[in-house]
What we know:
Distance between the termini of chain B: 54 Å
Number of domains of chain A: 2
Distance between the termini of chain A: 53 Å
Oligomer: heterodimer
Number of helices of chain B: 12
Radius of gyration of chain A: 16 Å
Strand order of the largest sheet of chain B: 4-5-10-6-7
Helix content of chain A: 25-40%
Shape of chain A: globular
Mean pLDDT of chain A: 95
CATH architecture of the largest domain in chain B: 2-Layer Sandwich
Number of strands of chain A: 5
Number of strands of chain B: 13
Order of helices and strands of chain A: EEHEEEHHHH
CATH class of the largest domain in chain A: Alpha Beta
Shape of chain B: globular
Largest interface: A-B, 29 and 27 residues
Strand order of the largest sheet of chain A: 2-1-5-3-4
Radius of gyration of chain B: 19 Å
CATH topology of the largest domain in chain A: Ubiquitin-like (UB roll)
Strand content of chain B: 15-25%
Mean pLDDT of chain B: 93
Amino acid sequence: MRIAFTVNGRLHGLEIEPGEYLLEVLRRIGYKSVRRSCGSASCGTCTVLLNGKPILSCSTFAASVDGQNIETVEGMADGDKLHPIQEAILEEGAAQCGYCIPAVVMTGEALLRENPDPTDEDIRLALNGNLCRCTGYEAQNRAIKKAAGVMRGETDE
Amino acid sequence: MSFRVFMPTSEEELQRLLSERSCILAGGTDLLVKMRLKRVHPDRVISLRHLEGFDTIEDLGDSLRVGCKVTMSELLNSDAIIKHSKILEMALREIGSPQIRNRATLVGNVVNASPAGDSIVPMLLSNASLSIGSAAGERVERIDDFIKGPGLTSLANGEFVKSITFEKTGDFFPQFHKVGQRNAMAIAVASVGSLISESEIRMAFGSVAPVVVVPVEACKYYSRSGESFDEDRFVELAMKSVTPIDDVRASSWYRTTVIKNLILRTLKVWRKRGYDAD
């Protein structure tokens, strides 16, 4: 079947099998930031935004996003300038192996759009479904909080 | 691909597609995982994606009706749910993660009929009933009759659940306690939901029997005993409905111990409501 959907603002029209999952289709057309690991809706590394909300692409049919908007981390940086969440993750040392990070950035972005000034608890709850086996989450929570401040227009110091 | 995918737009079209080896796809957080893991092999997957309607939360006065396409996130963002069904809100917050709740539906969780189904607990406590559609028309069934066993419901070939209706329970003191292997994304090892008032207690247990169970005798004892209420007696009666198994998540012994402690915690929190419970 033929579907058309936008990824990071760019329209993609393509032929898919009706039973293909969004995760595989996104990777096939080049969005390799969308990671496959558990394949069972448990780890969160395949998170993308569907119409602005985080969802798991490993348990979504590609057919069901026909006509919808998808966002991945490939769309976050502005040319050479990283998105504030990406910048803060670097500064806070919030990435080690990096495997979970694209999904963490997208989940954090969805949170900050809805809640520009989240508490530590808000951040922890939002990142509930993004497993990270390296960092213990503290640095990631700090990074999201820091990025929130930058995005609200407050200075770092 | 050994199955076909359909996306009906009307109820009539959906009914025509239903067959013995078809599966209905709502949020997909359960079905698509099982299909990926090759645990289920439907011939047809019928997506509700383009189905018109079934996406509202309606206030019916004493009760609320939730369509089969309504997601858990939508329920958590609903003023009507927060105001009139705190117990459902509490249970939904314990399910999965934001990603899961943005896709998973309440009706889907009920139809899965898992013994660990977190949202089945508040639905039992709120005397929910399901509206079931088929080519022959519509029938209504109480949730405790609808769920027949682990993963088993009374749904016949050609039927699908259109909506779930449940009582407003704002006059009760609600509690939902869940123990899992970790906080997020965990299937319950044991859970206890309750609605308590001075004269009535409603309680349901998840993950400690083949289906989510209500300790009927214990609940009756609470109403009957009044001043002479004895906590140990209540727990003893409640434990009669608990028949846990050993599985990958926990042993039967552990579940029995946990559920007993969760019942005691529930009674303690109720006793000390308004004060610090722990």
